[in-house]
Specification:
480 residues, alpha/beta, 5-stranded mixed sheet
Amino acid sequence: MQGTIECKCKLSQWREKAKLRSQEKGALKKRNKEILKSRDLWKEKYKKEKVLNGLLRKELLKASKGKVVVTAKGLKPKHHSYSVQIIMLCIWIRQQGNCSLRSCASMLKIMSLTLNLDFGFPSRNTIQNWEKKLGCYRIGKQGKKGEEWILILDESISIGQQKLLLILGVKKNNYKFDSALTFEEVEVLYMGIDKSWKGAAISDQIGKIKKRGFSIVYSVSDSGVNLVKGLRMSKVDRIEDCTHAIGNLLKKEYNSKEEFLSFSKQCGILKRQVMNSKDTLIMPPTQRVKGRFLNIQPLSEWAYKMLLLLEKTDGRLSDEQQEKLKWLKNYQTLVLEIYEVCKTMNQLFNILKNQGLSNQSSEACNQILRDSKAANYFKVGVLAYLEKNLKILATPSPVICCSDIIESYFGKYKNQLAKTGAQLITDSCLCIANFNQKFDEKEIKQAMEKIKIVDLKNWRQENLPSSLLQQKRELLKNVG
């Protein structure tokens, strides 16, 4: 009897389960019919939209008076979503336009809307990765047999705690000595970041450049002790940079001269007095802390012109302005001396930076010095510089004697770095290799395919020391 009751209970349970399954099956069948019906509706909508889209394109062509819609269906690097043309356009906008990454992405959107271009919009991170890949590819290039190179090297000392060593190369046969060096005429052969660069480390990097097949004729640099030592250890002849050499003449003469120090102090006092007043127009230019004597010309021109204004009686200066400037008369002799030196210095730079150093340009410089009213110490120092550096290579051909281009490289990178608010060198410095804007579609494609994201990571680990911010994060990690 008990077994019969149990069987009836189990049978009742199975019936309930069967009912539930039947209800669920019915609901799923109904849902399936709805989905199939919805799918058919969307298919119909898609076909109608496709036809309508085609008609709109035809109307657009008619409205644009037969102008063809430009698309970006060009050659794509392997494993990349964007064409080589889009990648090159972004890098061109960045380097030629000197705009930020977000501005570059925004400019592409504006171009697409206004010029009827048909392509997707890369993000700022994508554009930055493209830049890094191309830069990493370019600094690892091999030299070609038969090519002779001139090195220009320096280290930046004003970006965070790290120092960026930059070695540029100029193809000897490509430079014609008809104007100063430009970005397009030099290539980045090496860049590295460290807390300090000693002569032995610089020599090692020059040796690696030689192993990559670059034949080095001579180099140009300032008189930094580590740079001089590194080039001497590498047995590379060095031409002293004329800008720093002549700047050092001024530094040696005026750096400890009490009259100049007093004059400089008075200029600073006047600047603070008038910078927020109605007399701002007589404010002296800002004096740089570093490289003051390389940029002394604006200060000398200001002082010279203010002295000329003080002598005029046509009322250009008010009585109050004359009162604020009358102290300049006490330094009239010094101002005239520095003004003549700077005037002569510009004439010399116009020859040396454009024509290079040779017997012919040296004779032209001698003639300028003979006609100049510059102080004797300056003339003697310049003549010594010319004589010393002419003997180094003893060649009739002109040689490069100016490294201003490397300062332009540093300046452009610092300008880009300032837009991001970063105060430390990051792997974005790889974009420095792209400042030479002579790249084509073939090079872009090779760089995108050869350099992977993991290669950028490895370069960052090998070349970027741990920053203060990273050390702080590691110290406070999991503290609580």
